[in-house]
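ingest -> validate -> predict -> emit
validate: passed (alphabet ok, no gaps, 61 aa)
predict: started
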Amino acid sequence: MGGEGTVWGTLIGAMIMAVLRNGLNLLSVSSEMQTVAIGIVIILAVYVDVLRHKAAARVKV
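emit:
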């Protein structure tokens, strides 16, 4: 697996991360907690992608 992605998907992902980080800054969240929040978002995104690929594989069978 790997190697999948689009320029638009990358740009949207980067924008989501920037908006999240900016929002956390505006809320005066510590930098450590910002890192934790960004990490959780990345882990959730990977988990959703895995579930999406499993569902697509089930449909093909």
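The chain is about 80% helix and 0% strand.
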